[in-house]
Amino acid sequence: MKLMGRMGLLAVAGRALNAVVSVIVFSFLDLLDAVLCFVYKIADFAVDREWKACYCSISSSGDIFARGGRGPGRGRGGRSNVLRLCPATNCLHLDSISDTLHFRPYLVSDLASIIFKKYAAHNVPTQAILEIPSRKTKHRAAPRWSDCDCHTCNSWSTCGESQSQNLYVRAEGNLLKAEEDVVFIHGFISSSGFWTETVFEEFSEAARSKYRLLAVDLLGFGRSPKPDESLYTMTEHVEMIERSVLRQHGVRRFHIVAHSLGSVLALALAARHPDSVISLTLLAPPYFPGGEGDGGQAVMRRVAPRRVWPPMAFAASMACWYEHVSRTICLVICRQHRLWNYIFRLLTLNRIRTFLIEGFMCHTHNAAWHTLHNVICGNTEKMDRDLDALRDQLKCHVTIFHGENDELVPVECSYAVQSKVPRAHLKVLRGKDHITMVVGRQNTFAAELEQIWKNAKGD
Fold this sequence. Notes:
By secondary structure, the chain is of the alpha/beta class. It has 17 helices and eleven strands. Strand 8, helix 8 (261-272) and strand 9 form a beta-alpha-beta unit. Helix 7 crosses helix 8 (261-272) and helix 8 crosses helix 15.
């Protein structure tokens, strides 16, 4: 009993220490982000000859502010919308963007608001207007100065118009007369290599002769286009998958395998094609129900609790809360990914997996920042609707995998999905986390996928 009491006291003391240290560290990061905001404005103006606004410095006048003519009008609501031209159909769409882009309460900024009366919760933008680009508009010949300009990251901006508007898709298996197609969608800060360099290598010859395997690099990641003017909303991501995978490759009836962020897009894709999806396999879906009326703030607090421990929570908080700190990280890591690739291969005697570099480093800050907020933090209501459609309208087989030790997306998320879709089969993997649920057990996982597709009977 005494030992249990001491363990309880140590646990309480540990949580208290974590809370105290977290306040100190994140207060410093608040100040650092404010300083970096000024530094990047000067650098952007000096190099690109453009005074670029950011989400932490929206003017109080309510005028148009962002890059490329984007300008949220300010109002009293908690929603933001963007009027955008769909590149696939040349039609206008009113799309929602996350409130977490514009309102992220900090200790330092809250104190500043009292002094300067500059920031206020009711000044969250509610409407955005996007300039409609001309049909003759071409992609920029070069990326922003802080983004990589190598062939992998930027070749799309100088190639033909028809190529530049499509995502990168890796196709394997039966490419001529496949019986069924399988679409693989990777997670946040990843690429198609997460699939092609793991489970693709483990599929049996029977599976490779029956299925066409299509792994896509999402917009802004891997070898896909990384347009600086994009807001990377869920609609943009899904429409680009439809254009680059379904239409480009003539996909009619298909299975979906999706990891983490990809699960959100997979649900939306399935809801838009209810008669085409044969089976849906979700790995660690980031579904955080509840918090109604709190917009994406509740989700952001769950995903990024601003704590220094565990390390995954600290990394998520850095990426989610600090626009300019995360841009600095991308400047150091993503812009120099060729150098890091060389160093890692040298240190590991050329044994490092390519997808570790391509996935974690081949993206832009603009893509990661907007995707994190607009797809993960700002889409609980859309996920609710898509899950309702999956339960009531779709008849496809649903399987969920989740690592028991996942610190980024807790296993409760998958239980919540199963509660919304009771027919879904949930498999919790003992001792596995967000990545090792696939990497390290790819042979077993490939066999599990083959069994799922076989049981689905896509007749």
